[in-house]
Design brief:
With 196 residues, the chain is α/β, with parallel strands linked by helices. 38% of the residues lie in helices and 18% in strands. It contains six helices and seven strands; from the N terminus they run E-H-E-H-E-H-E-E-E-H-H-E-H. The strands form two sheets. The protein has a five-stranded parallel beta sheet, sandwiched between helices. The protein has a two-stranded antiparallel sheet with strand order 4-5. Strand 1 (2-7), helix 1 and strand 2 (33-38) form a beta-alpha-beta unit.
Length: 196
């Protein structure tokens, strides 16, 4: 399978990078084709210009390449921290510019964009690994876990990828090396489960 891996964290020594490295190593062992994008290292330009909004817009080569990687993927794995209940801005910009109408989703003929879209992505599964410094109970009771809603319903559900799983690792700032090692083993297990 062709698996698209997207990483969005600026610190190369972060646990997010360790997660992404574990994902890539695990996918290599399963002999998958991997397309890997570290958005910060690649300096992905997140701002959506007005001339790209139209479904028929002519896209810059970089954006077109990312769109092609997305629509040709059999599976998708995204790794990022929880910042203010949202993905980092660079990843939000990737969503804005790459998950496009006509390629990732469409509206029925005659629908002016007010209805329920049809998902077009061919990916069979999507996995999102997130990290945070908020305890799970507080995340659920106070914030309502907005990342679960964003990824499961607003992104992948909308684009037709119903086989979705998200795993959040917390609390990173106080975690010990042994705990992080156990978490990375879990990352490998989840990756193998969804992309055997």
């Amino acid at each position: 399978m062709k698996i698209l891996v997207i990483l969005a964290h600026p610190d190369e020594n972060s646990f997010n990078h360790a997660i992404a490295e574990t994902v890539v190593e695990t996918l290599h062992k399963s002999v998958h084709q991997i397309v890997y994008h570290d958005l910060y290292r690649e300096e992905f330009p997140p701002a959506l210009p007005s001339n790209e909004i139209s479904k028929s817009a002519s896209l810059p080569p970089l954006i077109s390449s990312h769109v092609n990687d997305l629509v040709s993927a059999d599976g998708i794995i995204i790794v990022h921290p929880n910042w203010w209940g949202q993905p980092p801005a660079i990843l939000k910009g990737w969503i804005d510019r790459v998950i496009r109408p006509g390629t990732a989703y469409e509206f029925n003929e005659g629908d002016s964009g007010e209805g329920v879209p049809n998902g077009l992505l061919k990916a069979r599964a999507a996995v999102v690994f997130t990290t945070s410094n908020t305890a799970e109970e507080r995340e659920l009771s106070v914030f309502g876990d907005p990342l679960e809603t964003i990824w499961k319903n607003c992104v992948f559900g909308l684009c037709g990828v119903d086989n979705f799983y998200r795993r959040n690792f917390a609390i990173i700032v106080t975690s010990m090396p042994s705990q992080r090692g156990d978490w990375l083993n879990e990352v490998a297990d989840i990756t193998r489960r969804y992309f055997p």
